[in-house]
Specification:
The chain is an alpha/beta fold. It folds into 2 domains: 198 residues, 2-enoyl-CoA Hydratase, Chain A, domain 1 (Alpha-Beta Complex); 58 residues. 53% of the residues lie in helices and 16% in strands. The radius of gyration is 20 Å and the shape is globular. A hairpin with a 2-residue loop joins strand 1 and strand 2. The protein has 12 helices and 10 strands.
């Protein structure tokens, strides 16, 4: 009997798509799945034909976090070294997204819980389907987060809303997530991947070197105060813009104007 892989990887038209593939278990992390996700992301980071990455889940969940039954079995058997390796593998996943030089779009198609919530928050752009629901269940199960949830969420939605989510474990609907600024927008479930691919295509049509630099500037700036961020931007700008000719800029500007006219007419 052939077992389907827990992680699917596809590259089409400069877009790399990583799909978590345990729909019967709500795409909960299991076995070597964390390492497989990291390996897929690392491959996409290295591929020159990929400009944008989409991460999603198959079925009715994006990711429900760790497979609690699997983890409980490891601990009951005293397989503590194996359990610790899973934690290390999880950090590798997060590092793979943080260090990804290309934009990462999280296509949140359903339940996004615990470690799955943490995984989603590492994306650069989050789009949710109307079926998406979010929950930080760490306080419910008595475990502290270790993939950035306590730091990332407050920076996105503000401390009060983040604390509400952390301390209660209550679910956040897709609409509430949009109101809070947690996701860019909410789209019908059947349209989610198409919308993400349209967005990825728009990004892929931009100058890849500038997209890479811009991503790094935004990420670095989030860890600085405004004055330091502005100084960083000036420094990066001086280096990144060096050697670009006026003719090159004029040609690109003409293409932008033509695209604007086409969008206005559509």
């Amino acid at each position: 009997m052939t077992t389907e892989p827990h992680v699917l990887l596809d590259v089409t038209n400069s877009i790399g798509t990583v799909t978590l593939n345990r729909p019967d278990r709500l795409n909960a992390f299991f076995g070597s799945m964390r390492d497989e996700i990291a390996e897929a992301l690392e491959e996409l980071a290295a591929r020159e034909d990929v400009r944008v990455v989409v991460v999603t889940g198959r079925g009715r969940a994006f990711c429900s976090g760790a497979d609690v039954g699997y983890m409980a079995d490891l601990l009951e058997r005293g397989a503590y070294d194996e359990a610790n390796l899973l934690v290390t593998a999880g950090r590798r996943v997060i590092r793979s997204i943080i260090e990804m030089p290309k934009p990462v779009i999280a296509a949140l198609n359903g339940l996004t819980i615990g470690g799955g919530f943490e995984l989603a928050l590492m994306g650069d752009i989050l789009l949710a389907s109307t079926d998406a629901r979010f929950a930080d269940t760490h306080c419910r199960v008595g475990l502290a987060p270790g993939w950035g949830l306590s730091q990332k969420l407050a920076r996105i939605v503000g401390p009060s809303r983040a604390r509400e989510a952390h301390f209660t474990g209550n679910f956040i609907s897709a609409e509430q997530a949009a109101d809070w600024g947690l996701v860019s927008r909410v789209v019908a479930g059947d349209d989610l991947l198409d919308e993400c691919r349209k967005l990825a295509t728009d990004i892929a049509g931009c100058v890849p070197e500038t997209v890479k630099v811009y991503k790094q500037m935004v990420n670095d700036g989030l860890g600085m105060d405004l004055a330091a961020g502005l100084a960083m931007e000036r420094s990066v700008m001086s280096h990144a813009n060096r050697g670009i000719s006026g003719d090159t800029i004029a040609g690109r500007r003409s293409a932008v104007q033509q695209r604007g006219k086409a969008q206005k007419g559509s």
